[in-house]
Amino acid sequence: MAETQDFFNAEQLREHARHALAAARDRGASAAEVVAAVDDGLSVTVRLGEIETIERQRDRNFAVTLYFGQRKGSAATSDLAPESIAETVAAAADIARYTAEDPAAGLAPAERMASDFPALDLCHPWALSPEAAIETATLCETQARESDPRIVNSEGASVDTGHGLAVYANTHGFVGEQEGTHHGISCAVIAKDERGMQRDFWYTSARAAEDLDSAEAVGREAARRTLRRLGAKPLSTRKTPVLFAPEVARSLIGHLLGAITGGAQYTRASFLLEAAGERLFPEWVQMIEQPHLARGAGSRSFDAEGVATAERALIENGTLDGYLLGSYSARRLGLETTGNAGGISNLVVEPGGEKPDEPLAALGTGLYVTELIGQGVNGVTGDYSRGAAGFWVENGEIARSVEEVTIAGNLRDMYANLLTIGADTDTRSKIRTGSLLIDNMTLAGE
């Protein structure tokens, strides 16, 4: 316990950061920023009742960026000894001498630094020994394998736990720390019948171990999902509404977020170029960034540049409010940072549309997608084409399992043709969304 407390020593990391910033000033830097971080984790995988992997990680990282006017140099080390930090600062200064001036380079504005640090309840270390992790993984896999005689093989069950602490400091005088934990249990199994074999999986993840589903529940769900895929067949080519299950629906929101990042905008590599203020979705669609959710997967009080985070309606009444900007991309675009250096915080996609409490009923007859395959998305044009598996639904009821089909469309059209956002919200990610029902997609099959 004493060793762990010493490893996660925020004051020690703050002191290292202060020394590095002082050394940067001594070298004539006009501005500087530092990230000092430590991470500790344990991961165990069991397959067919035998231990497959046990991994213990304990990492340190110290990164410093120096600015000499508009010239920038960065260097990093995993050694937190004072002499190593001094060498890292010197290396960053040397690098800056060879870089070209960049008018957009620099720290985020001083007046945007966070000053309020709400309690977000993100840190819940799990005192999990390797032996206990093995027992939990074994219990999960055993539950799945014994659920049904048609479960004939396993890809294993895993248990993981992680704990991280990071201190960010800069020459504005800002020093802030963010500490959090993440834990998870997962299982994947294979089922077989006279028509062939199928595989599926399930998982649970949370900031606190007590918020996880039980190992037995994860195993049962992995088995249930695998068994229902038996007998899968292709479909004929057609136009059809497509319902994306929550665990795959968030990828559609992810494409939206990628297109509205500052980098995609200033490089002009986005299918949503200059789309701020444009209505992209039906008028009932609301997507709100909520960075201060207790125990949220993406919760934080400040972004990667120390800028205070705040609630924001990213999509309001179907209309795009603006972009996701750090200070660099904001300067490139002539705009202000939105506190999104390092990405989105928690994006809550609110349920709505046709029958949000009954997504399958809203689908009626069409394809219910539970797995996406491949990377066929063009971020510049918005063209979308991906392999898919799932279920054909008739009159709101699952009729049969489906595989080896491709669904295609254009993301702009898909967003405009959104019919339902289900109330079956998946909270295991920074993107919190329910199932998404999209009308009139092309399904290519037999």
In round numbers, the mean pLDDT is: 96
Number of strands: 18
Rg calc: 24 Å
- Assembly status: single chain
**Low-confidence runs (pLDDT<50, min 5 residues)?**
none
The succession of helices and strands, N to C, reads HHEEEHHEEEHEHHEEEHEEHEEEHEEE
Strand order of the largest sheet: 3-2-1-4-5-6
CATH topology of the largest domain: PmbA/TldD fold
Global morphology: globular
CATH architecture of the largest domain: 2-Layer Sandwich
User: What separation lies between the terminal Cα atoms?
Assistant: 60 Å
Counted by DSSP, the helix tally is 10
The percentage of residues in β strands lies in: 35-45%
Characterise the protein shown here.
The protein has two domains: about 1-225, PmbA/TldD superfamily (PmbA/TldD fold); about 240-445, no CATH class. The longest helix has 17 residues, at about 10-25. It has a six-stranded antiparallel β-sheet with strand order 3-2-1-4-5-6. Strands 7-13-14-15-18 form a five-stranded mixed β-barrel. Strands 10-9-8-11-17 form a five-stranded mixed β-sheet, with helices on one face. It is of the alpha+beta class and about 450 residues long. α4 runs parallel beside α5. A hairpin with a 2-residue loop joins β2 and β3. It has helices at about 1-5, 10-25, 80-95, 130-145, 215-225, 245-260, 260-265, 325-335, 360-365, 410-415; strands spanning about 30-45, 50-70, 70-75, 150-170, 175-195, 195-205, 240-245, 285-290, 310-315, 320, 345-350, 350-355, 365-375, 385-395, 395-410, 420, 430, 435-445. The protein has ten helices and 18 strands.
